[in-house]
Amino acid sequence: MNVLVIDVGGTHIKVLVSGEREPRKFASGPRLTAKQMVAGVKKITGDWKYDAVSIGFPGPVLRNRPVAEPRNLGGGWVGFNFRSAFGCHLKLVNDAAMQGLGSYRRGKMLFLGLGTGLGSTLIVDSIVEPMELGHLPYKKGTYESYVGNEALVKQGKKKWRCHVADVVAQLVAALEPDEVVLGGGNAKELKELAPKCRLGDNHNAFLGGFRLWDEASKPNVSSSTGLVSGTQSTRKDNEHGSTRGSNSQATVELRKVQVQRVISELESKEEPKLDHDGSINNLIT
Fold this sequence. Notes:
Blueprint: E1 3-8, E2 12-17, E3 24-27, H1 34-44, E4 52-57, E5 61-62, E6 65-66, H2 82-86, E7 89-94, H3 95-103, E8 108-114, E9 118-124, E10 127-131, E11 137-138, E12 141-142, H4 143-147, H5 149-155, H6 157-175, E13 179-183, E14 197-199, H7 204-211, E15 220-221, E16 228-229, E17 234-237, E18 242-245, H8 248-267
Parallel strand pairs: 1-4, 4-7, 8-13, 13-14
Antiparallel strand pairs: 1-2, 2-3, 5-6, 8-9, 9-10, 11-12, 15-16, 17-18
Helix pairs in contact: 3-7, 5-6, 6-8
């Protein structure tokens, strides 16, 4: 099966189809609507054949559909019928979740996308949970307002790098991942990486899009939560064309509790405490 992967970004729309090596792209921007995105994709992929589509969307997703208009694009995304527009099977997930899925190796991984804003997703034992950590309060704004592209331009690279390091340290202390993958277009601007961190590759967004349809790992978007599951036991969700692991609901509830605890820790604004050897103490027990 040939899959067309669409990575929707604040500055560009990038696409790649199974069997091709070089992605194609066109400019997006704050006025781009969903309808214009579809038209632009069809224009630059006219000679490509595909049976299914994966879309990475820069915002929260529920049941293969955006639930809020993107902050850095135009309108018309909520309620738009992408499946009908492309005329084939389609899976739409959060863009950070798609790139995180493509970056995932094992265990518990936190993905942070340093681009127009701050994308984030947490993957635990092949269960992918898209998150909106970038909108949590930080100093006089939010995490995103200090590590997004606008902050990089206004503050300069030196101050931006300091903020990125601080944000990563806080999230590592709260979420305790085995590793952190720093992706997005601005990740290349980092000079040094903290322990447990590695640089991602934007090409991993396409890999994640292909993995959504991979029958071997069976990662699928839960029809009720937007989670991507890698469990072996799945069933068809006839209404939305997605699948759900038989034990995914229990996992979802556990993740909800964890996320609420993380938010409580972050909003307390307590500084991470260091042991005598310089390691960060656990903030979640």
